[in-house]
Write a structure and sequence with these properties.
Length: 258
Amino acid sequence: MENLLDQLVIKAYECGEILLNANYSELDVESKEGIGNLVTKYDKMIQDKLNKELLELIPDANFVGEESKEFEKIKTDGYTFIVDPIDGTYNFARNLKSSAISIALFKDGEPYMGVCYNPYIDEMYKAEKGKGAYLNNKLIHVSNKKIEDGIMYMGSSPYYPELRGRLVKVLDKVMEKAIDYRRAGSAVLELLAVAAGRVEGYIELKVQPWDCGAASLIVTEAGGTVTTEDGKPIDYNGSTSIVASNGQSDLLQFIVKE
């Protein structure tokens, strides 16, 4: 297992090259369940590559990928890879250059290593449990600003229209306190912004394990907190709400229940 994190970083860099060299006239875009929920041939290409090569590193690991036909449970007594080949596929399909590759490794049911790469600005984030979070090999930490002096990233639950009304109410409460908010179109990039101290928090009412498996570890290793909207630990065996914070303000105060 020595230098495993470095090997995951190399895999992410290789996948980033695939994105940077994508042929936009041959994306082979398909629709999945949910409004604007797309998959391209590059999502499949990158996931196939990671499925093969990550399991060569740990042959007895489980593999969970966004484009997998079936969801494998996270092992409670071994290793599980959780991968998003392109987080922000809609951004990618529109050439917005706001997408990331995410590779998480869970050990005995808990986040153990996380690697996320934004190839468009060459930012490589990595973390190993208990060893801090890094951006391009430099230690990072969440900001020390309170929400009154800061900005938030907010999700929009694009695939789940039944949640949009409640999100608008959450956003309204956030804007009563925060200076402003942003939306990146990628849960991974939004969580990483919290870890890097660029924003003070992030709220989304429904994400999947591949959206947050790696980036949530990077946030906590950078000194932040990650919970559900109820303040509970994330259950990575299914969809979940997520509230990431620098810990300077109680973001759960903004959650609206219906």
